[in-house]
Design a protein that fits this description.
The chain has 98 residues and is α+β, with helices and mostly antiparallel strands. 14% of the residues lie in helices and 34% in strands. It has 1 helix and 5 strands. Strands 2-1-3-4-5 form a 5-stranded antiparallel β-sheet, covered by helices on one side. Strand 1 and strand 2 form a beta hairpin. The N and C termini lie far apart (31 Å).
């Protein structure tokens, strides 16, 4: 269960057999957009903190393979609840910024 409205939204793991380590995970939302306003919703991921979310986002945008789509110039926005965490721009096939 994700609680919303608070600055940090921990995911409740009250009966989770994996223990308390997961009780402090935050729900981060990842979206991709380009200058033409096209948006791809990549979904949510439970991660420990902002630094982990940024590292994860950089890996995802680095690994994008477009097929017919060229992701150069696309931006990944990362949020936790309503709070912006950061964004990462894919400059070209090999370079990312952010």
């Amino acid at each position: 269960m994700v609680q919303s409205g608070a600055k940090s939204d921990p995911i409740s793991r009250e009966a989770d057999p994996l223990g308390p380590a997961l009780s402090t995970m935050l729900a981060y939302h990842f979206t991709l957009r380009n200058d033409g306003a096209q948006v791809d919703d990549l979904g949510f991921m439970g991660l420990a903190d902002d630094d982990e979310a940024l590292v994860f986002g950089k890996q995802v945008i680095r690994d994008l393979k477009g097929g017919d789509r060229n992701y150069a110039g696309w931006i990944m926005d990362i949020t936790e609840g309503e709070r912006p965490v950061g964004n990462i721009r894919r400059k070209n096939k090999r370079q990312i910024e952010g």
